[in-house]
Recover the amino acids of this structure.
């Protein structure tokens, strides 16, 4: 749930920018799939601004991953942006 991400950030002395009312039950994958904004959207942006990489399971069961250690990668298409806001129609986000 989003609450676990916020708690982990708080423990590390950081702040996770996205906060929504359903933080206790909303999953990170669901937030990515809907491009959630929440109550801090004007200051920190939509969920799209928070995602550096993701892993998704496609309809045929194959796993697509773009979890890399680089914040900038210009090799090929940026599939992260395609999955963010897709409402789960392209696949299910399992890691972000």
């Amino acid at each position: 749930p989003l609450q676990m991400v916020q708690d982990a950030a708080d423990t590390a002395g950081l702040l996770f920018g996205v906060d929504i009312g359903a933080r206790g039950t909303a999953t990170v994958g669901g937030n990515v799939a809907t491009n959630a904004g929440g109550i801090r959207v004007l200051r920190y942006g939509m969920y799209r601004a928070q995602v550096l990489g993701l892993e998704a399971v496609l309809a045929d069961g194959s796993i697509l991953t773009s979890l890399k250690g680089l914040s900038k990668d210009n090799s090929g298409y940026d599939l992260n942006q395609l999955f963010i806001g897709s409402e789960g129609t392209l696949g299910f986000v399992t890691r972000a």
